[in-house]
Write a structure and sequence with these properties.
Shape: elongated
Number of helices: 9
Structural class: alpha+beta
Length: about 180
């Protein structure tokens, strides 16, 4: 019990030094990796964030991994994230593997049932999101899209469905059944 409640000054100094070192390295690494690391997160970004937290916590609080090992793990993880981010720009296959597609939940005031099953949303979940945005009835919705970050996009103007920003939903095989958007 005494060991659990207290520690030596040497160990306390090790923990403090490790926290400062891994925190500084993480801050520098995130600045280099870019805003994507801390913006609204995709599933991949969430995984990277959890991994960074695990590396920081383990490096700060236990003797293994050492500070150097924690730094190597952190730098490697951030390099993998940067590599995948760059690869996503070049290769559609990698983009499809890493990124979740947007999902149409409502089109022309009607719920896309298949779209609701994929993210495991209930009708009440969807209506709550609409209310938060000041939309109180499905009949007001031309299009409701669950974005890869978990945010929702609500389109109330049907003419906006012809815009370039919504073209991806028309072209997406994943959403073909749910979207059924009119051609411009």
């Amino acid at each position: 019990m005494a060991e659990w409640m207290g520690t030596s000054w040497r160990v306390a100094g090790f923990v403090a030094l490790s926290v400062v070192g891994i925190f500084a390295a993480t801050l520098i690494g995130i600045r280099i990796a870019g805003r994507r690391t801390v913006s609204q997160m995709s599933a991949f970004d969430f995984l990277v964030t959890v991994a960074i937290g695990t590396i920081v916590a383990n490096t700060a609080l236990v003797q293994r991994p050492s500070l150097l090992e924690g730094l190597v793990a952190l730098v490697t993880l951030l390099l993998v994230q940067i590599g995948i981010a760059l690869g996503r720009r070049k290769w559609a296959g990698l983009r499809r593997l890493v990124d979740l597609p947007p999902i149409v939940l409502v089109r022309d005031g009607r719920t896309a049932e298949r779209g609701m099953r994929v993210p495991h949303l209930t009708r009440d979940d969807m209506l709550e999101r609409l209310r938060r945005e000041g939309v109180y009835g499905l009949d007001e919705v031309a299009l409701l899209v669950l974005e890869p970050t978990g945010e929702v996009t609500i389109v109330t103007d049907p003419s906006a469905l012809r815009s370039e920003g919504l073209q991806i939903l028309r072209d997406s095989a994943q959403n073909a059944e749910e979207a059924d958007l009119p051609e411009p």
